Amino acid sequence: MDRETRDALDEILTSIKSLDARVLKLESGGGVRSPGTEPKKLSLKEFLIERGPSNGVQKTLSIGYFLENYDGASPFNAADLERGFRAAREPVPPNINDKANLCVRNGHFMEHSEKKNSTKAWLVTRTGEEVVLAGFGKARS
Questions:
Q1: CATH of domain 44-134
Q2: What is the Cα Rg of the chain in Å?
Q3: Distance between CA atoms of residues 134 and 124, nearest Å
Q4: How far is C-alpha 140 from the geometric centre of its chain's CA atoms?
Q5: How far is it, in rounded angstroms, from Cα 60 to Cα 67?
Q6: What is the residue extent of each domain of the chain?
């Protein structure tokens, strides 16, 4: 590789690193914070209030979405969903697997190819994500 090519690649790498830093700053709120302070984390309860699910299937879908996108639980299983219901202080459905299977039937969950802790696991589909992000008919401010 000649020097001119190497210099061009170094310039591109520097630009990418600069853009990464700018994106990180924008995604984290971009404001000046005191040293050692982190932005407040969105709670599962706040997320449910914001999205406005009105029944057990919608809440199961919303909790699955939250687990994947905010909690790092991907794939998730029935125990993860139950933990989510409890964290949000929502009544735990008598049969979470039934609610998850209804989400599968609606095309909002898909079964993961591998089990998680020896139990069936799911992922939220693209359609499921769109449904959650659109909300469930609740006007948001």
A1: 1.10.10.10
A2: 20
A3: 15
A4: 19
A5: 10
A6: 44-134
The answer to whether 95 and 11 have CB atoms below 8 angstroms apart is: no
Using the predicted structure, report yes or no on whether residue 30 has a pLDDT greater than 60: no
Neighbours of 96 (CB within 10 A): 20
Where do the H-state alpha helices sit in the chain? 3-27, 44-51, 56-69, 78-87, 96-105, 126-134
Place of tokens 């696991």: 121
Using CB atoms within 10 A of its CB, is residue 133 exposed (0-12), middle (13-18) or buried (19+)? Answer: exposed
Inform me whether the pLDDT recorded for 37 exceeds 70. no
Residue type at position 7: D
Dihedral angle over CA of 89, 93, 98, 101, nearest 10? -20
Q: Which residues does residue 76 pair with via DSSP β-bridges, in sequence order?
A: 122
**Ramachandran bin of 86, using left for φ above 0, alpha for ψ from -120 to 50, beta for the remaining angles:** alpha
To which residue do tokens 């995604």 refer?
27
pTM score, whole prediction: 0.70
Amino acid identity, position 122: W
Edge-to-edge, what's the strand order for the sheet holding 121-124?
Answer: 76-77, 121-124, 109-111
Q: How is residue 9 written in tokens? A: 């690649």
